[in-house]
From TrEMBL:
It is a multi-pass membrane protein. One of its GO terms (molecular function) is glycerophosphodiester phosphodiesterase activity. Its main location: membrane. It is found in: Membrane. It comes from the Eukaryota. It comes from Pogonophryne albipinna. This is GP-PDE domain-containing protein. PROSITE patterns: GP_PDE, PROKAR_LIPOPROTEIN. One of its GO terms (cellular component) is plasma membrane. The chain crosses the membrane at residues 98-119, 166-183, 195-215, 227-249, 575-594. Signal peptide: none annotated.
Length: 678
């Protein structure tokens, strides 16, 4: 019995397969070979398919560490330029690749903005999850998969240049969805740039300066003047654009520290919902422990006229109504009477869903208190605030038309406020309905509006306080309202950077779900003080140059505008970005000079000529082998004939083989004839 031994034995490497597959899309065994001679259908296989940018030659070995986003774009443009001089018909396929490279760059920029948006929207993750809950009916943290897929797509695009189509389509769909359901959140980008703009400018400038090493290397090695000129012009355009970006950066934290106003008061939005269930008595007690100056709540009215605290229209999310009243879990919260509401548990959902990922930080005692929380009434909240001398602001939701208190909801709420015994000066009244009547019955209430109106209308209605979302008031508007003796409270402020920006803007108070975090911010995160440097230097220059009648009017106007922008920049920031620009420019010039010197001694070569020469060598060798086989076969036939005719000489045969060999030449000789040294 004959046993056949396998020619090759492969060891299963599951871990290596996963790593190479995820990182480089190399899922097959032959694609993981480290040998450059690995072949598939006669061509060398690239470690990963270059889906975007240029479709590199089959004989090109593409390594992720060598060809990332920026080098891939530069090489692609080099190929497009080389197409004009390339004689190989295969080079004519690179025309469309310039368009594909533009798509790649657009996808990268879109993903960068998308990633930055979700990074800065961390302040409003709970608001986004609540929007998802209203649409799906199930509470879950929808930001986790979005951040994971965004980070993965950004990594693949930036370093591997694969998955461009999937990343582009997914991001576009995400942008459209957010724009339809959460469009107001886009305002977080310009607001966040007020806090991160100066530092993003320095980071971007450092990245573009470091990129000059790649650009200078490609320009120095290239022999095409058009390619060199276009790449240098594009790079310098981006670099000069970054140099002047600080002229248009506006941040309230670039100011004189002596003009900084007092620290804004913090109001507990729904208590302390990160540490306890929202709108429960324990949540407000936890907020008071964090030294808040006020409490904010959402108020609904029961069917028997008792105001109670509830944010949602139904009781499904924050109570166990599905367990106690399974047939009524979809009904409006105001359709229950106070007796039924007192039977519901309003704390177990917090331990189960963990909406802010904070349950693991709670002690056993706190978890026990949370598990026993019930629905809180407005009267309980007012008595707690009165005891701690804390301000109370609540949003009153009108019951549905079939509700018995549909017409008397204002009177029922006002009666509860008066019966609680809380001083009227501690209550911020927000409903606009029957405001004149409320002012007559309770003149001590702080009249508050949740809509931004003109100053004349606010004074006419007796409104002295505004409760707005943080994107509804600019720094200039905040200053105008403050000068008119109208205080502004902005919600919902959970991040220290946003709190710092609003502090520098002059806001009097903020409403926050993270009072325990803002408690640790005794001063703005960063503040750029002023030093008499730039204005001292630029002021006399602007005056002197402005009085010179030499330049044309247009040039003089632009020059004066530039001088005004520079002179109005706080001087320490002006000195910082001017110094960074000078250092960056010096480094870029040095890198270009070094790369030119480094590549000046290298011998130039044409890769296309080498490929054509190698192809000629392969064809010649193949023809030589065919001729030898024919001669050997002829030799065999003639030798059989020589047995019959011994006088026949074999010398012409040997001479024929020698002549064929001498007529073709070796591969080394072909390379030497073309002037290449290997």
């Amino acid at each position: 019995m004959v046993k056949h031994q396998p020619l090759q034995v492969y060891e299963r490497q599951l871990c290596l397969s996963c790593i190479t597959g995820i990182y480089g899309c190399r899922w097959k065994r032959y694609q993981r070979s480290h040998d450059d001679t690995t072949k598939e259908t006669g061509h060398r296989v690239a470690p990963f398919p270059v889906e975007s940018g240029c479709s590199f030659s089959p004989n090109d070995r593409i390594v992720p560490s060598q060809h990332s986003l920026f080098t891939g774009l530069i090489l692609c443009f080099d190929r497009v330029v080389a197409e004009r001089t390339c004689l190989d018909p295969r080079c004519k396929k690179h025309t469309w690749e310039l368009l594909w490279s533009i798509i790649l760059l657009f996808t990268f920029c879109l993903l960068l903005v998308w990633f930055y948006f979700w990074w800065e929207a961390h302040n409003d993750y709970n608001e986004f999850n609540w929007f998802l809950y209203n649409r799906s009916g199930e509470w879950s943290d929808g930001t986790v998969p979005i951040l994971a897929t965004t980070a993965a797509g950004f990594t693949y695009i930036a370093f591997l240049m694969i998955g461009v189509t999937a990343a582009l389509l997914t991001t576009v769909i995400g942008v459209i969805s957010v724009n339809q359901t959460w469009g107001q959140e886009w305002d977080v980008i310009p607001i966040s740039l007020q806090a991160t703009g100066p530092f993003l400018h320095i980071g971007a400038l450092a990245a573009v300066t470091a990129l000059s090493w790649i650009v200078a290397g490609q320009v120095a090695r290239s022999e095409k003047t058009m390619f060199q000129v276009v790449v240098v012009l594009l790079y310098l355009s981006v670099l000069l654009g970054l140099y002047v970006v600080p002229l248009y950066i506006s941040s309230p934290c670039i100011m004189d520290p002596s003009t900084l106003k007092q620290r804004p008061d913090v109001i507990g939005h729904q208590g302390a919902p990160m540490l306890a269930p929202e709108n429960t008595l324990w949540s407000f007690q936890r907020a008071l422990q964090m030294n808040v100056t006020g409490l904010e709540a959402d108020v609904a009215i029961s069917v028997d006229g008792v105001p109670f605290l509830m944010h949602d229209r139904t009781l499904r999310r924050t109570t166990d109504v599905g367990k106690v009243f399974p047939d009524r879990h979809m009904e409006d919260a105001s359709s229950f009477n106070w007796t039924d509401l007192r039977q519901l548990n309003a704390g177990q959902w917090f331990l189960k869903d963990d909406p802010f990922w904070t349950v693991h930080t709670l002690s056993w005692r706190e978890k026990r208190l949370i598990a026993n929380q019930s629905v809180c009434s407005l009267e309980q909240l007012l008595r707690l605030a009165s005891y701690h001398n804390s301000t109370v602001v609540f949003r009153l939701r009108r019951p549905p038309p079939e509700h018995p208190c549909y017409d008397s909801w204002i009177n029922d709420t006002l009666q509860a406020v008066q019966e609680s015994g809380v001083p009227q000066s501690l209550v911020m009244w927000t409903p606009d309905e029957h405001r004149a009547q409320v002012r007559q019955l309770a003149p001590g209430l702080i009249q508050t509006s949740v809509e931004k109106r003109r100053l004349q209308r606010l004074h006419l209605d007796g409104i002295s306080q505004l409760l707005l979302r943080y994107n509804q008031a600019s720094t200039k508007e905040i200053g105008n309202f403050s000068q008119s003796n109208i205080s502004i409270t902005l919600y919902t402020i959970n991040e220290p950077w946003l709190y710092s920006v609003l502090w520098c803007s002059g806001v009097s108070s903020v409403s926050s779900e993270a009072s325990h975090i803002l408690k640790k911010v005794p001063y703005p995160i960063w503040l750029m003080p002023a030093l008499p440097i730039c204005s001292t230097i630029w002021g006399p220059c602007m005056t002197t140059c402005g009085s010179d009648p030499g330049p044309p009017a247009v040039v003089q106007e632009e020059f004066n505008l530039l001088g005004h922008l520079l002179s109005t920049r706080p001087d320490e920031y002006c000195l910082m970005w001017v110094s960074v620009d000078i250092i960056s420019f010096a480094v870029v010039i040095g890198i270009f000079i070094f790369q030119k010197y480094r590549t000046s001694g290298m011998r130039s070569y044409n890769p296309e000529q080498i490929m054509l020469s190698a192809a000629a060598v392969r064809r010649s060798s193949r023809d030589l082998n065919v001729m030898k086989e024919k001669l050997i076969f002829s030799d065999y036939v003639m030798c059989r004939g020589a047995q019959r005719r011994p006088s026949l000489s074999r010398q012409p045969l040997e001479l024929g083989v020698k002549e064929v060999g001498n007529g073709v030449g070796s591969a080394e000789e072909l390379y030497e004839d073309n002037g290449y040294d290997y």
